Amino acid sequence: MPRGFDITLKSSYFNHLAFGSLAVSIYFMKKPVYFFILLGFSLFTGPCLYGQNTTAKMDGVFNEQFRNGLLTGNLLIARQGKIIYQKSFGFQDIANQVQNTAASAFALASVSKQFTSTAVLQLKEKGKLRLGDPLIKYFPDFPFPNITIRHLLTHTSGLPDYELFDALIEKEPGRIFTNHDIIPALKIWKNGLLFKPGDSWSYSNMNYCLLALLIEKLSSETLQNYLAKNIFKPTGMQHTYLENKLIKHQNPDRTVNYEYPTYYTSTIMNVDSMADEHRMIFNLGGFSGQGGLTSTSEDMLRFDNAFFAGMLISAADLEEALAPVKLNDGTAAKAKDGFGNMGACGYGFGWFTLNDTTKGKIVLHDGGRPGISTIHLHNLRTDQTIILLANVAGNVNDLAVSAYHLLNGEPAPGLRIPLIYTYARALVNEGVDVATVKLQYLRDNPLYQMPDNRMWVQLGYQLLFQKAEYKPLGVEAFKTASLLFPDDWYVTQGFAAALEQAGKKDLAILMYKKCILLNPRADYAAGRLRELEAK
């Protein structure tokens, strides 16, 4: 669920908290992600291999972003493999007042996909597989015979994402699901593929979990052992390892992950104690390959240096891994509509690829889970690297874009304040009229960012189910969202559910019908509609 924050960006505002903090949140990839910063930072500056003027500008920008609550975790910037800027911000462990340092180890989330794809390409070079092989060749029970290894690598398989396990979690709420549960779940999945393999692009973590199964099958080793032997050890990554809910690793430098429980509150919490995140952290916490790796910023630089020097895979495979995938109709898949102000991205094998190559070939991967936000970016032409690891999820993409511009002597674009917090806090504390006026007044202000559709849905459900007295506010939030996104099925479904919760059956039926018109695959809306019409 989304986390709360007051948009007044003054450190003194939160002085009443025990530790003093600021927060900001933005929706990222497939779930909302959040950012916090604690009032203290540590400086770890690498050798002065870049201009003092550039370093001073970086200090000015990132220290200000730190003070304004827009930066936490570890930031490392390198050129030609050498660190030119490195800082740690905030706390590794709030309860014990342990600050982040260069040794702090962060969960990588989806940045782990770079390692999974590299391992698959290594097995290809060893003659263990071909990228055009259908997965069913190695797993005869896999129910979709036309999906190939290449489809999995490029997210063009059409497989569902974590929603594959929604019904199973409802049936077995105490179970931790793993990679080995994916094929059995797909065999009973009633909704089929999102599209014919290769026809379109849709990010699915299941693709990379299946690739992890493939790595283990063909190497006769666990994923951890394979990666340790073939990637971590050869590159000197001594502080990188696999962990999840079922694979434990004791590390005193491992960061604790934090979030805010709603958009309208400001008390930070350890994500392990948050009921709203139980499903993602516990039930879906046994997967690997799609995420699961823990590392440090310096270890990530070691990987970066080895990978782009061709130490891990051949030059030909490196080129193919970083080439944007083309769909069956010959067009390039659009994987991200925009990466900051740097334009849209395609997708290769575990790497997003910027379409605009005027400043070089830029590749990256970002990651986000509860209490986690990460990004690894590399420009092949200039041999520049940006690594940002945070133990509270947040807007690392815009921070990386700022770092990139500064690294190249360009002004850093301003980071905007998410307007969802202003609206949510006003709605709860000042009422509907004030919230609506603030939304209308600030929506075109360049200092603020309008919420996207999923932020509105998250806020609506928070208000509907957190407290009974907030239920009317949940309906109001969904109503506002439906006016802003009238043709969005996800918002429409939420508005219908809110109306149903409010006892407005006839209006709920109308909204569920509209939702199904917008998305005939909206199974939840179809089920609720049948039940309401039967009453």
Walk me through the topology.
Blueprint: E1 21-28, E2 31-38, E3 41-43, H1 52-67, E4 73-79, E5 82-89, E6 91-93, E7 98-99, E8 106-107, H2 113-125, H3 149-154, H4 166-171, H5 182-187, H6 205-219, H7 223-235, E9 241-242, E10 258-259, E11 269-270, H8 278-283, E12 293-295, H9 297-308, H10 315-321, E13 345-347, E14 352-354, E15 362-369, E16 372-379, E17 384-390, H11 396-407, E18 417-418, H12 419-429, H13 432-442, E19 448-449, H14 453-466, H15 471-484, H16 489-501, H17 505-518, H18 523-534
Parallel strand pairs: 18-19
Antiparallel strand pairs: 1-2, 3-5, 4-5, 4-17, 6-7, 8-12, 9-12, 10-11, 13-14, 14-15, 15-16, 16-17
